[in-house]
Amino acid sequence: MSVKSYRQALNEALHQEMARDPHVIVIGEDIAGGAGASGQQDAWGGAFGVTKGLLGAFGPARVRDTPISESAFVGAAVGAAATGLRPVAEIMFVDFLGVCFDQIFNQAAKFRYMFGGKAVTPFVLRATFGAGTRSASQHSQALYPIFTHIPGLKVVIPSSPYDAKGLLTQAIRDNDPVIFLENKLLYDTVGEVPDGPYVIPFGEANILREGSDVTIIAFGRMVHIAMDAANALAKEGIDCTVIDPRTTSPLDEDTILESAEETGRVVIVDEANPRCGMAADVSSIIAEKAFGALKAPIMKVTAPHTPVPYAPNLEAAYLPDATRVAAAARAAFTYGK
Amino acid sequence: MSGMQLSRDELLNAYRTMRTIRVFEDRVSAEMASGDIPGNTHLYAGQEASAVGVCFNLTSTDSIASTHRGHGHCIAKGCDVDGMMAEIFGKDTGICRGKGGSMHIADLSKGMIGANGIVGGGPPLACGAALTAQILGRDDVAVCFSGDGAINQGTTAESMNLAQIWKLPVIFAVEDNGFGEATAKSFVVAGEITKRAEALGMAHAMVDGVDFFAVHDAAQEAIARARRGEGPTLLHIETPRYYGHFSGDPDNYRTAEEKAAMRLERDCLTVFRRRVLEAKLLNESDLDAVDAEVQELIDGAVKAARAAPQPGLETLTTDVYVRYV
Asked: Is the ipTM of this complex over 0.90?
């Protein structure tokens, strides 16, 4: 166990799984960087440095820099998965899935079902997501609800270095297609991470904090904001439970419902847009299955129904923050009292 | 070895497979009219020499990606005909247990990685199958069957480039039947299809898709090149499409005269018979015996499919994942 960054944790998972299984390959744009150029090879190690060092360790056959042809290389990864490899494809920004979505939701997601249970497609798609980098509307979205909607896909959103490594290891070993989304503002965050390989099963939420007054459910980087809010509220005498579902598909409904039934007051924090987002989805599950336990309306803290803006003041207003989460929790806590 | 040098058994096999596709498709068309087949089908009749000529050079560890017009490719790659017919009828005994239907027939154990409801869905997948072979050091190849319609999809252009830069063992078999749905190729395809390969430095050939032997020989050369690690080839295979785009298509955008002439002058089965008879490789009674045998096979497949049970309702929610929760 040692302190590592979220980026290092992911890199370690890739290294260890590639060393463990020769069927694992990584494929994407500039995942090494510098290919065909006169200077340094493995120059980038991925646009965010997550795949650094893999080229030297595993060679260009298994670490493939691709043309900027997302449909071709994502689809090739899907086809390779269906025929015996375990490809990990990287898309720099989840927004770019717009140009290759067919290969994800019509092909990879559906092989097993439409081929009568005979296909196995162990395909991982890694992509960054999230606002806060002044990158505007086409490089900042939080599109995990779209993938969560599709039967046949699993969707993972790690919030800590420990979860990042354990969940990526599970994703690579998993026999179903997995969409693995990394919030770019988390890459430099640090935490304790075991040195050896380990897996975190999908569909098991992490309870970061237990309190009997309000349940806060948060996804990805929003988990940190929820914790900030919960720590502030504790000083006011409001005790919050904070739940990180870690995967949106499968979703750990049991943990969410158990806590909702205990507190009766729920806040959901979701960086995605509000319509058909995770906040809407989870609140519908709670409303349907724990209605009798609710003491207050379910509060949703989300981005607005707008694209991500560029100007720093607008982007700050776009993103949920601890102040908004605390206000929502306070409103839930005092409702009906 | 040229197709004309195939053994007597091989020639009979090629003819049997082409005849099986023809009778299968004509029968599906007739059964569609009865109303007992759900949904829709896109029939391959007329194009048989393409699927069979290409797949004759493949083994079960080679892969093919197919299209919405995929029955012929499936049969040519060795998919079970009974299972296919049952699938089209939506039955539990179907090759995909009734969950895929006509447009999603697949048998990965035979290297048939899927018909595809998306035009242009297959090229990236075929590159993936070829990538698997390349990385694992196998001499398997992948064939991407697509139509002239898919040549205008970005996935095709992207995949051709990817295959060429990585020297993937993939063959792009573009079956040009002159129509993308109801629109003529001449209206929507700019330039020559082979020039698109030429621009990438990719090997290419024009092939008469009515002549099994022409397809066989061109595919053999392309597949051998791929197995040698020399990269992809595009085959532009010109072929007729006997039926409309889909089974209920009135096909009124072609004149009756044009359609009659097409069936008369461009029938790969007639051409095959003429060529093997002229060369005295097979005799008339050999071929007639195959015809009778195939008729019996398809009759049996339809009878079995009609008698088979529907999928159990409990299968509605199974096989979405290998393991979920």
From this structure: yes
